[in-house]
Amino acid sequence: MILFLLTLNKLFFNDRILHTSTLFLQKRFLLIYYNKEKSVVFNLFQVIFFLIKILVISLIAYHINAFFKIYENINGLKGYSMLLSGVIIYFLFHYLIGVFIAEVLSFGKIYNKIVYEKISYFNNLILWVLPFLIIYTYTHSFNTFFFNILLFLSLLLLAIRYGLLLYNNKNLIFNNIFYFILYLCALEIAPFVIILKLTN
To answer: Which of 113, 109, 5 is nearest to 53 (CA)?
Structure first.
C-alpha cells in the first residue's frame, strides 16, 4: 500500500517528490511550494503523502513493539490496524487542537506556515527512512543490525527536522516566546502524555 501510494505521487508529482526528498539540504523548494500552495495546504500531493506517513509511522511503531516485546497482544494485521487507528487519531487531534489555539490567539497565518514546514520536513524524513524500513521488514538476516539503523536514522532525522524548524523560525520564536512555550506544551508534549496515560 505504501509503495502503491508513493508510485501514485511520483506519477502525478514527479518533480515534487524529487524536491521533497532534498528538503533537509535545500530550503528554497520549501519556500517555492509554500508560496504556491499556502491557500491550499492540503492538496492531492499532501493528502496522498499523509496516507503514506501514517502507514509508515504505524509500521515503525509495530516493529518497535515487536522488537522490544512491549505489548504482546499487538501482532498481525489486527495489531497493526490498532496502531494505525491510534496514529490517525493522534495526528487529527494534534492538527485540530493546533487550529483551535491558533484561531483563539489570532496567529492563524503563522501557524499555517509552521504546519506547512513540519509536514514538508516530515515527508522528507519518510522518504529517507522508507528504504531502511522496507529492508528491515523483508530481511530476516541481520535483523538487529537493520533495526538499529532504522531506529537511529528515524531519531536522528526527527532531531534534524526539529532543529531546522527552530532555525527557520528563530526570529518568530524569540519574538513570541510565550506562544512558542504554549505550542510546545499543548501540541508537542500533551498528546504524548495523553497516549501514555491511556496505554498504562
So the answer is: 5
**Per-position DSSP letters for 146-173, written without gaps between them:** HHHHHHHHHHHHHHHHHHHHHHHTHHHH
Q: Per-residue pLDDT averaged across 6-33, rounded?
A: 88
Please give the pLDDT value at position 189: 61
Three cell numbers written together for 190:
500533551
Report how far residue 161's alpha carbon sits from residue 189's, in angstroms, rounded to the nearest whole number: 16
Mean confidence (pLDDT) of the chain: 83
pLDDT tens track for 141-159 = 788 888 999 999 999 999 9
Grid cell locating 34:
509554500
Helix axes 76-104, 108-138, angle to 10 degrees: 170
Alpha-carbon distances of 171 from 75, 102, 167, 178, 180, rounded to whole Å: 46, 18, 9, 13, 11
List CB contacts of 34: < 8 A, sequence separation 6 or more: 113, 116, 117, 120
Q: What are phi and psi of 126, to 5 degrees?
A: -60, -45
